[in-house]
Write a structure and sequence with these properties.
The protein is an alpha+beta fold. 61% of the residues lie in helices and 8% in strands. It folds into three domains: 389 residues, Multidrug efflux transporter AcrB transmembrane fold (Up-down Bundle), CATH 1.20.1640; 155 residues, no CATH class; 129 residues, Alpha-Beta Plaits, CATH 3.30.70. The strands form four sheets. It has a four-stranded antiparallel sheet, with helices on both faces. Strands 5-2-6 form a three-stranded antiparallel sheet, with helices on both faces. A two-stranded parallel sheet has the order 1-7. About 1% of the residues have low confidence. It is a multi-pass membrane protein.
Amino acid sequence: MNNLYIYKFSVLTEQLFKHRFLFLIATTILTIFLGYRASFINADTRLERLLPASHEFIENSKKFRDDKVGGSFIRIAVANQGRNILEYDYLLKLQKLNDEVSLLKGVDTAGLKSLWAPNMLWFGITPEGFDSGPVLDNNILVDSPESMVKIRNNILNAGIVGSYVANDFKSSMISFEVLTYSPTTGERLDTHEFTDHLDHIREKYQALGLDIYVIGELQKISDLVDGFEQVAIYFFIAAFITMVLLYQYSRCLKATLVPIMCSIIAVICQLGVLNLLGFDLGVYSILVPFLIFAIAVSHGVQVINAFSHEVAKGRSNIDSAKVSFHLLHKAGLVALVSDGIGFAMLFIIDIGAIKDLAIVACMGVVVVIFANLVLLPIIMSYVGVTQQCVEHAQYKLEQKNTFLAWLGRFAEPKRAQVVLLITLAASLIGFEYSLQIKIGDLQQGAPELRSDSRYNQDNLYITSNFSTSTDILNVFVETPIGQCETFKVIELIDRLGWELQNVEGVQKVSSPATRAKISRYLGNEGNLKMMALPRDERVLSRAVSNIGLAVVSDRGNCSKHIITVELSDHKQTTLSAVVGVVRRFANTHNDNDIWIRLGDGSAAYEAATNEVIDHAQYEMLIYVYIAVAAMCLLMFGSWRATMCIVLPLVLTSILCQALMVAMGIGVKVATLPVIALGVGIGVDYGIYIFSRLQSYLKLGHSMKMSYLETLKTTGKAVSFTGITLAIGVATWIFSPIKFQADMGVLLTFMFIWNMIGALTILPALAVILYGPQEKTNK
């Protein structure tokens, strides 16, 4: 041991290892307790967590609806297995299905619409005048051809072909709103229980010979949660791959199992702490524990690598553990704190699901600090490593590795200049391409799920066979009390509806003005000249409030209207065009008599979310990089060191956005955090490499020699970690959850490029900024 460098350990190191047994006992008890608490963690399916709470659309909705929390619309298409719906048996089954759905807890029964709903009326002009009645009831339904003919005529006179009856008459629609909170008690609906009941009804009637198709935000979230049950499989696959590669790297079972065990402990404790704090896992933060596992493995490999090399030098297990902790705890702590601060920057995005993700990620980082920087070296001080591991570590230290020698040349001035020129060119090209990145969903249906998923197949059936839209945007109109049916108000609503109807992507506009026109037309023997707004406000009031048509105005004090806009899709171009028209019209015409505001509906929520994300995506990245740079500056005390670590991460972020453009992935709630997470994980590589590089520079080595020595230890661990984690995350590509597959592609790319940047661009920057013969850190 006389030839070994003697470290002066800090008080923290000495006290930690002096009381290591007590620490192990306390950690074991705490892990068991938190593991028990983790068993109670559930998926958070609250729809409001997916919305930007303080956005003007959400605020407008709360104000307009008197702070009543709205629900989610569900549409159920009931098909007669390729046959016409005008069959006695089908209509009886439809009636029973309609009744069962209406009795489900949470269904707004008054607003439920189907062929059997009492508010589904037909209208006609007869020799006796205007006539109306229910499309279908027990008095009409008789098992006879005459009855079927009458029902068909009622459907045609109701004008519901394409909306509540398929264009080919082979299926019909049931639509209703699910109130996620009770309007009387305020009790929150168990949405997962609701969709379970709905699935049970679906299976029951499919067994009776009907084909059932269900869509709606609530159903989509439920299908996502059901898909997460398979996510655990990919966790175990990634853990197994990591374990195999780690064993190949260390040639020691103990050095393989201990870091994997500590990483799993980190995940268990993370979930347990979340449960203690009253949090559940949101649908978009469900993957964060897997990322925490990856971060934990990354730091665990550094500890195992340092420990093995110290044992190979002849130190005892306890001394090797002390040295490993001494060498790595500062760099590891700074790296993990940088991760945590970077993740915390997600809090600036005012969307509950992303804030939940930030909490989960930050909590995971805190746990990793204890599990992999403290617990891991303590356990290794007891278990040690095998002789085979020691011999393998010695062999890796002594062998001449041509690949490492080739990497070492990146610390030469000429090669460094070439690398930086290539980096600059890649950054410029990637930046220009990344400017094409889109906000929001770029595909039909639910992009979070596979195109062949049950939900997207249901959505495809409904959009192919019905003309009704699944993307709704409501515009709120408010007036002084008693003034909602003046000619000025209804005429302005009519003009806005006309402008909206001529926007590309708008399928239909329903408003008090359209209702008044139809009412006038029907009440005047079908005279097309009468399909206009009368200036006599008494006549206009009767036309607007015709009880035979859907009433959307506030009849209590006559101060509110809703304009419902049905869109062909929820792509950003469509949403921004509609929102732009409404805002321009409102800015021009809002006065003391009328206030027009954008409101709720699935498309409105999507538009609000897109606006928040569009505003926050670059702001978030700026804050993430400021936080990471500040931590690097604090640790190394040098702007040059900070540049060496941060600039390679910037290139990865730019190229990641370019990749999203190439893959047709938009920036949305599910994908926005990936870039921040990638930066947080990637900074670890740079901090570890520069920390070790700095230690060799302080010993008097040249830049190239320092980097070569760094590559033999930390560099190998970084390359191994980057490749291993990339392979593990790459398995996500095969997940049934599309957004997990997208995250798998993006994170695999970021793991690889962060590793490449740390091994090539960082030394190139160092040699340019410091000089090839730099021997101290200035």
